[in-house]
Prior knowledge:
Chain A has strands spanning 3-8, 11-12, 18-25, 33-40, 44-52, 57-59, 67-72, 77-82, 91-100, 104-110, 114-118. By secondary structure, chain A is mainly β. By secondary structure, chain B is mainly β.
Amino acid sequence: QVQLQQWGAGLLKPSETLSLTCAVYGGSFSPFHWSWIRQSPGKGLEWIGEIGHSGSTNYNPSLKSRVTMSLDTSKNQISLNLKSVTAADTAVYYCARESGGILYTRFDFWGQGTLVTVSS
Amino acid sequence: EIVLTQSPATLSLSPGERATLSCRASQSVTNYLAWYQQKPGQAPRLLIYDASNRATGVPARFSASGSGTDFTLTISSLEPEDFAVYYCQQRSNWYSFGQGTKLEIK
Lengths: 120, 106
């Protein structure tokens, strides 16, 4: 059974960089794509971006200028960096596996979520 | 950007009743529409993918239909564990989610 375990700092000050890591256990890392999604009371579920097993990335245009995703295939880990955070970035952050046929269309496995709070 | 609008925002029903949830897209998503269930403190759980296919382990009381811009999730006979928030999600150039329907016990 595929399991995603994520971790990272939960409390940040404005202007700092959010850094989260997600490890994949019990399943193949490739050929899947991997996404980060966040959930806040004000904006609901928001897709942040995705990274493919080859390292190709695709980001939500609204966050693209601040987001970087990377992967470490030797450790089956993906990472998220979001720079210059503000209070509006306070949310629960999830990593998730994408699945599908020709096109990846849904998220079939999710991490447990990490609450990130931005406060001075 | 494709916007997904779910209705109703809240649905109050009793166990054993039938639930019908709606998701409307601002433009066609063909059949690339998924449904998720989320309970408090948990990550969303995939229920339905590609508009009408149940994910692994999802009970048969969950069914879904639709294509293009109008989609429906139906729970034929509500069990106590079905009371949760339900989200639809689409994939075009990128992903987006609806704002959710809260299914609560009447």
